[in-house]
Amino acid sequence: MRRVDCDPNFWYPVAWSRKVRPGKAFAARYAGHPIALIRPEHGPVYALEDRCAHRQVPLSKGVVDEEGCVKCCYHGWAFDRQGKCVTVPYLNREGVGRPVRAYPCREKDGLIFIFPGDAALADHVPVPDVAQVGNPEFKTRTFSPRLKCHYTFMHENLMDMNHQFLHRRQMGSITARFLGQDEGEGFLEARYSFARKGGNQPLAEALIFGRHHDLQGREQPVEEVVSIRTTYPYQTLKIHDKDGDLIMDLWACYLPLGEAQQVTQAFGLLSVKKPKWAFLLDLAWPALGLFTHRIFEEDREIVEMEQNAWRELGGDHNVEVFPVVRKLRALLAASGVPNKAVLPVA
């Protein structure tokens, strides 16, 4: 499975909208492909291969002109949003310069997405809905860490809630209770609740879940249901309270980097339902950010150690016993495409 690339025939976020300023070009990547994002002063952002057709200098180092074309910083070759070379300034005639590849590009919910696969399919594949961006009943924060691991490790880490022992310093003694699963074409979902076995509940956790206490060995009721779903290639985590109301919504996409796709750029948004007194969430927001950051840093260390072991052992030696993770691996392997950059293990 670690030799399976992401299927490029989906929409992948490659940058936050705020990073691509009007009249500027911005360097991004998908797997082994350099991408130049160009935002003209007027009109939507567009995406080109980040290599000038002349000397392969990055177009992201260039200048955006008044017509919205990007000019290479070296000789001034100009390319439009379709990737056509419209100007070779020192020859002053049409049809001289070669084009560069243009990628279908969309902007939604503060993210810039490209479609790196077959451009003819782009209009038939929906751009994903992202958490609760734009919903005034929720407050949303973003995160975009880079991890030194294959994207499949990230899907496994979030789907398998049985690793709460890892987070004992942040969350105290809690255990996950598996409630069931659903699966279908291109998706797998697992549902959990959590029981506190000891230790004090962190403020940020209480803000999301409500107050939970150690019931001294008695069975704890299911107060919230945590649903983790991989809808290829995206992943979500949603928390519903005992009344079925959504109280937290996490959306993540794991963008592969490099030809072997063993580095991942995560793009995520976390939306939390505002309480009756919304200012309380504002006051607790920095603590919530610190709490989620610490949890993620523990996850980061683990998945990067898994990737290092994969390299050192020359392949995947995992002994997986949890049926949900086995099904997740089958989904990821069937949904992706073989990687030609990773040599087979002897």
Number of helices: 5
Tell the overall outline.
Answer: globular
Number of domains: 2
CATH-level-4 superfamily name of the largest domain = Naphthalene 1,2-dioxygenase Alpha Subunit, Chain A, domain 1
* Computed CA radius of gyration, to the nearest angstrom: 23 Å
Q: What is the level-2 CATH architecture name of the largest domain?
A: Alpha-Beta Complex
The profile of the biggest β sheet is: 8 strands, antiparallel
How would you state the average pLDDT, rounded?
90
Question: What is the chain-wise order of helices and strands?
Answer: EEEEEEEEEEEEEEHHEEHEEEEHHE
In words, what does this structure look like?
One of its GO terms (molecular function) is dioxygenase activity. This is Aromatic ring-hydroxylating dioxygenase subunit alpha. InterPro entries: Cholesterol_7-desaturase (IPR050584), Rieske_2Fe-2S (IPR017941), Rieske_2Fe-2S_sf (IPR036922), VanA_C_cat (IPR044043). Residues 11-114 form the Rieske domain. The protein has two domains: 8-124, Rieske Iron-sulfur Protein (3-layer Sandwich); 138-338, Naphthalene 1,2-dioxygenase Alpha Subunit, Chain A, domain 1, CATH 3.90.380.10. It has five helices and 21 strands. It has helices spanning 151-159, 168-171, 203-209, 278-313, 323-335, and strands spanning 4-5, 12-16, 24-30, 33-39, 46-49, 63-64, 70-71, 78-79, 85-87, 102-103, 105-108, 111-114, 138-143, 146-147, 173-184, 187-198, 225-231, 234-240, 246-257, 263-273, 337-338. Strands 13, 14, 15, 16, 17, 18, 19 and 20 form an eight-stranded antiparallel sheet that branches. A four-stranded antiparallel sheet has the order 3-4-5-10, with no helix packed on it. A four-stranded antiparallel sheet has the order 6-7-8-9, with no helix packed on it. Helix 1 (151-159) packs antiparallel against helix 5 (323-335) and helix 3 packs across helix 4. The longest helix is centred in the C-terminal third of the chain and has 36 residues, at 278-313. It is globular, with a radius of gyration of 23 Å. The model has no long low-confidence stretch (mean pLDDT 90).
